[in-house]
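Researcher: Please predict.
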Amino acid sequence: MAPERVKEMVARADKLGVPRNSGMFKNALDTVQNLSPETISAKMDFLRRALGCSKSEVGIAVCRSPRILSLSEDNLGRTVEFLKVEVGLEAWYIVHMPAMLQCSILKWLMPRHYVLKVLKAKGLVKRDIDFYSVVCLGQKRLVEKFLDCYKESVPWLLGAYDAACAGQVPLEIKA
């Protein structure tokens, strides 16, 4: 890549507000290399409207996870709506934990939401458990922490979780 092009990419990444000494700066560079300034601006406006927050709040999300700008508006919109409507998260929470926007609704977010929903309804976990901490768990750790230890109380939950990961909403969870 020509030195002028590198300088241009660094300047565009700087405009996103990601500090150069941050581990996210490389992601910001990758993002601006693949998207036009107009596309970046349009995605930031879309996020502002979808989240119902300010331009500076969207800037916080982008600084924490620049790759969200690479997602389609359709994908971003569906994920924001799921997190706000189904999970009940506030915009400020999503802004501060934007990595969730990169997760698959069907294969990652929804199954974890269903597990928490069932465990909360049965009084087995605290109602204020942090959703993002559950989203960050790998499959093995999630099974250990939230499924295996409650198999006596909710024996069908692991099967329901597996079904949810396969894109099916188990009847036990619909109720």
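Model: Residues 105-174 form one domain.
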